[in-house]
Amino acid sequence: MAQQQTKAFLQRLSDEGRVPHALLLLGNTGAGSLELGLWLARFLMCEQAGAQGPCGTCNACRKSEHHVHPDIHFSYPTIGTNAVSTDFIKQWRAAITENPFMDVNMWLQLIGAENKQGNINKEECNAIIKKLSMRIFEGKYKILLMWRPEFLGKEGNRLLKLIEEPPEQTQFILIAENTEDILPTVLSRCQIVKLDALSDEEIIAGLVERRNMPTDRARNIAFLADGDLRQALQLADNEANDDSAFLLDWLRKCWRGHGPEMVSWTEQFAKMGRENQKQFIQYSLHFLRELMSLVATGQTQLRLPTNELTTAQNMSKVLNIEKIGNIVEILNDNAYYIERNANPKILFLDTSIRVHEIMKAG
Which CATH code of 3.40.50.720, 3.40.190.10, 3.30.70.1520, 3.40.50.300 fits the domain covering 4-196? Predict the structure, then answer.
């Protein structure tokens, strides 16, 4: 499980009876903010919570685990002028059960947003006020878990009095990625708990648990994900190729500059599909950033597997910071062009030639 230190901190607050009635968990979803919020709701409702957290077996835990506890209410961005969260509760329960590390774009596309803007609107705020004014059904608290309060906008003013003076045994758990889009008056009524990025070990454990992935491959993905399990899971799910081997093969062909070899490689690249092409570019940029660090500092403690580290050490003898920067700039441009459906074969054949010229320049 992610965010163990933060969970221990929240448990101490609970043990001491000092849990603020309005908590804002601040960190991206890939760092486990939504999963942490769900865990906290279960912990507060658990009938036998202990040092290990929620017991997992009591009636409250079973209902919380399936997101059907009558005293845990959810609020999240929706689409539609008068839409409220309960209109999408089936999709929400399925989504957070399958992937509590999803980002807001994944959620909005899941409910058919396409190009529509998600929001938490006036009707939703009125529904929240009504829900929290009702009596407790069977739990210790009435809990509102709001995911992404940034989508409240000015409608957050409707909830200020409720947050400041909530009914007895009412708990707010707000889960946000940034504070810039949240009303200062809402923020001032919450205690903010900032979440750190996940460690490589937590990312590896998450991939092994959720994708039954070999540890060595999970470690390679963890290097690239840089503390974001959501991104790591996406990389694992889109993994039709071994990006590491494919990258090293491309760099060797660019170094040699043999035309037919580069054409053959770009034909393979063109068949990969856009998502895998984007992933390859991302992986390449990660490698080049680590190579730049090696050239600049000489330090070999890099976020690279052994085979890539060896290649990076060899390349550091012939590439300087300026050359690496030029290659990075080209690949950043390519990410933009691929996103806009450029012809990948033409694009990367041209890129391969340009990279060869950069490598060989005096």
Answer: 3.40.50.300
